[in-house]
Amino acid sequence: MASQEIEALSGALARLPGLGPRSARRAVLWLIKRRETALPQLLAALTQVQDLLVECDLCGNVDTTNPCGICTDPRRDQRSICVVEEVADLWALDRARLFTGKYHVLGGRLSALEGVRPEDLTIGQLLDRVAQGGIDEVVLAMNATLEGQTTAHYIAERLEGAAVRVTQLAHGLPVGGELDYLDEGTLAQALRARRPVS
Fold first, then answer.
1. Are the beta carbons of 94 and 141 closer than 8 angstroms?
2. Prior bond to 118 cis, omega within 30?
3. Are residues 148 and 95 in the same domain?
4. Domain assignment of residue 174, yes or no
C-alpha cells in the first residue's frame, strides 16, 4: 500500500486528460525515482503556470501576457480572424503555421443537450470585433461534430449583415484514409464537397 500522500498525488494526476489510474501511478513512480531532479523542475513549472498564465481579453487564448503574443504580433494579418471552440484548437492550428491571422476562442460550442447557449460563449465579443471594422474574413474552424457545425451555422447567420467574408474549414476524406474505415458522416461530407477533376 502506498502512503496517503502518494495516493493523493496519483489521484490528482489520474484526473488529467489522457491519464488513467495506472498511468498516473507509473508517472508517480517515475517522479519518486527522480525526485532529486525531476520533481523540483515539475514543481517550479507548475508554480510558474499558476502565477503567470492569464486569459487574453481580446481572443481568449492563454498566455503569460494580456493581450497575448498572437494578438500583439505585428506580423499577423489584422484583417482575418479564425474562430475556434477551445484554446487547444487554437494551439493546434497555430502549431501548423498555416494561418497567419488572429484568433477568437469561443470557450465551447452550442449544445442543447448540455444547456450551452450563445450567451454562454464569446460569440458577442466576436461580433463586436467584426463590428469595429478592419476585418475582411472570418474563418469558422469548428470541429466536424453536430454541435460544432451548429455553432458555425449560428455564427454565419449572425454575420450575414456584416461586410465580411465568412469561410469554413473543408471537411471530408483525410489524406491516406481508406473508405472502408471512414464513418458515414465523413463520407457524406466528402460526397457533398466533391469537385471536378482537373
1. no
2. no
3. yes
4. no
Residue 23, helix vs strand vs coil: helix
Q: What is the pLDDT of residues 48-101, one digit of tens each?
A: 989 999 999 999 999 999 999 999 999 999 999 999 999 999 999 999 888 999
Cβ atoms of 20 and 14 within 8 Å: the answer is yes
Q: Which residue has the cell 461534430?
A: 145
Whether residues 157 and 77 fall in one domain? yes
**Number of helical H runs and strand E runs in the chain:** 8, 6
Domain membership flag for residue 186: no
Check whether residue 82 and residue 155 sit in a common domain. yes
Q: What is the pTM of this model?
A: 0.80
Query: Is 188 part of a structural domain of the chain?
Result: no
The amino acid present at 125, given as its one-letter code, is Q
Whether residue 31 is found in the same domain as residue 79: no
**Cβ–Cβ < 8 Å for 51, 22:** no
Q: What is the pLDDT of residues 118-175, one digit of tens each?
A: 999 999 999 999 999 999 999 999 988 889 999 999 999 999 989 999 999 887 777 7
| Rounded distance between C-alpha atoms, residue 83 and residue 101, angstroms | 11
Q: Among 68, 77, 96, which Cα is nearest to 169's?
A: 96
C-alpha cell at 184: 458515414
Burial tier of 98 (Cβ tally within 10 Å: 0-12, 13-18, 19+): exposed
Cβ neighbours, 10 Å, residue 101: 17
